[in-house]
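The records we work with from here on pair a chain with its fold. These numbers are not coordinates but entries in a learned vocabulary of local backbone shapes. To see the layout at work, look at the sequence and tokens printed below.
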Amino acid sequence: MSDWFLQGDYGTAPTNYATLAIALLLAFACGHTIAWVYILTHSGLSYSRSYVNTLILVPVIVALVMLILANNIVLAFGLMAIFAMVRFRSILRDTLDTTYVLAVIVIGLACGTMKFTSAILGCAATMFIMLYLRGTSFGTRLRYDLILGLQWVRPAAELDELRQLLQRHSRLTQCTSHRSHADCAGMDLSYRLLLRDPTRSHELVEELQELPGVARVSTLPAEEQSEL
């Protein structure tokens, strides 16, 4: 059984399993590093945990693809045709869903080209990374308790009153969006707040609604941030 596993690739080019293991590990490490940088440098409200996980998985899958293709242009065109057909028939809105589809296509390609050992090792590596990302909740970012949106209809020079109110309720305040209205006075503002007491967020909303110049107050819990 061990001989079959070690000599299980019957493709047109022999497989160097030490190179295969190093390539997958290096791709995982590099993808992990890029994902960390993305988490640390991302700004705005469009954060997605599944996108962060995709940044780790895609380099591993692409490395496996290149090892399986082994400079075979026919297999390369076949892979593109299969993936294009799946994308044409299925609308995948999540980047991680697309990555799962790409992973099973590549593993199927390895099996179909008689690279059985590469298929087993690639499947094991992909499964391990997916379980690791799931078990560690990698990419979850809950630095803030509340996402606050409001319309400010007073002059921008009078924003200090609003900032003081937010600072009374928050340990950390970050303005993530600032959009002025061209046709009228005022602006739309978005903040991320780390509250002093998350259970009293309703008091913040009530005070904002009573503050002159504030209109259309809306809030979003931080646990929903990774789904935006």
Remarks:
- Helices lie at 2-6, 17-41, 49-69, 73-89, 95-112, 116-136, 160-169, 201-210.
- The chain has a mean pLDDT of 79.
- Strands lie at 146-152, 170-180, 187-195, 214-221.
